[in-house]
Amino acid sequence: MTIDRKLNRKIRLMNNLMGIPKDQTYSLQKDKGNKVTLMTPNEKVMTGSFSKNEMHKILDLYVKGMEDYKNRVRIRKQITRRRS
Length: 84
Prior knowledge:
Elements: H1 5-18, E1 27-30, E2 35-39, E3 50-51, H2 52-83
Antiparallel strand pairs: 1-2, 2-3
């Protein structure tokens, strides 16, 4: 039951960006055929069953959104520090 290394790397990056402890991490579950599902740390289904290529695109969007959010928060903190 091997799942692509690139998918696992993106999941680890997502966990790091969200600051989730190592014992509670997002994971991938293999479904029928060549499909995978993204599971939350509470073992709830986060996405439906997608092929690996589709899951790559979905995880890219999740990671990009989190990175953008962190950058906006960082910029906002810098602006508020300058004002005070």
